[in-house]
Amino acid sequence: MLLTPISQLIVLAALTPAAMTPQDGFSAGAAEMAIPGVISTRQTLFAIPFRIDRRVGEPSQEPVDVQLYVSGNHGTSWQLYARGKPSQERFWFRAGMDGEFWFLVRTLDRSGRSRPEGPSVPGLKVTVDTKPPQLQLDVQRGQAGQVTARWKVDEPNLESDSLSIQYRVDGGPWQAVAVDAAAMAAGAEYGENLFSTYTDLMQERVFDPLVNEPGN
Fold first, then answer.
1. pLDDT in tens, 96-130
2. Which of 44, 120, 177, 205 is spaced 20 to 30 Å from 164 by Cα?
3. Rg, the chain, Cα only
């Protein structure tokens, strides 16, 4: 088969990390006991809605004060960040730095009793990461038409489907190159895609920095 040489090849790689806005909100019920997963955001100011169950058997158990506690050391210690009325329905939190923050909402009833009782269990975990992701792309083209695209990502909170690689030949339509989302979800920081400008995707290799080194 005769292969027609190409005069121009353009390869693009882009990151589209998810960025939660304050309007998205979070749920942190006062009686929440399940340990949640971590939510990542690039916002330093966001809302923390809460729902208070006012159905109580005794008037003395009616909640009159809501307290928001925050921990910046994975629950080792907690600080009272804000307090409000049950009708308020949300707190606003402003992070002074990047990091992982745990949140806990408690209530005080008319008798001065704090609820929920028991150990401090977070109802919400948020990672604030304002550092823009860094993406490096190195492309090499072989004589037979094969193209090797090596990429490296510096982003600890990367979404598994946020990396996209596309190429076009001689002003033709853009073609997508498949990226292994499962490998990225497992923490891959760099990888290599091998494809052909004459055929469909041929091969993909993704390196786990904890297991492989380039060239292995």
1. 999 999 999 998 888 888 888 778 888 889 999 88
2. 44
3. 25
Which of 79-93, 125-139, 140-154, 186-200 shows the lowest per-residue confidence on average (mean pLDDT)? 186-200
Tell me the CA distances in angstroms from 197 to 15, 150, 175, one per residue in order.
Answer: 23, 16, 10
Three-state SS string over 197-211 comes to CCCCEEEEEEECCCC
Are the C-beta atoms of residues 105 and 85 closer than 8 Å to each other?
no
**Dihedrals phi, psi of 167, to nearest 5 degrees:** -145, 160
Tell me how far apart the alpha carbons of residues 24 and 28 are, in angstroms, rounded to a whole number. Answer: 13
The Cα 78–Cα 90 span in angstroms is 19
> pTM for the complete prediction?
0.62
| CATH 2.60.40.10-classified regions of the chain | 22-128
Give the pLDDT confidence score for residue 71 in this predicted structure: 96
164 strand-pairing partners: 14
CATH code: domain 22-128 is: 2.60.40.10
Find the mean pLDDT for residues 185-189.
63
The pLDDT tens digits of the residues spanning 28-80 come to: 443 444 456 788 888 899 998 888 776 666 788 788 899 999 999 999 999 99
If you search the block for the tokens 């804000």, which residue do you land on?
82
Going by the DSSP 8-state scheme, the letter that residue 216 receives in this structure is -
User: Using CA atoms, how far apart are residues 18 and 116, in angstroms rounded to an integer?
Assistant: 33
What residue has token string 């329905």? 89
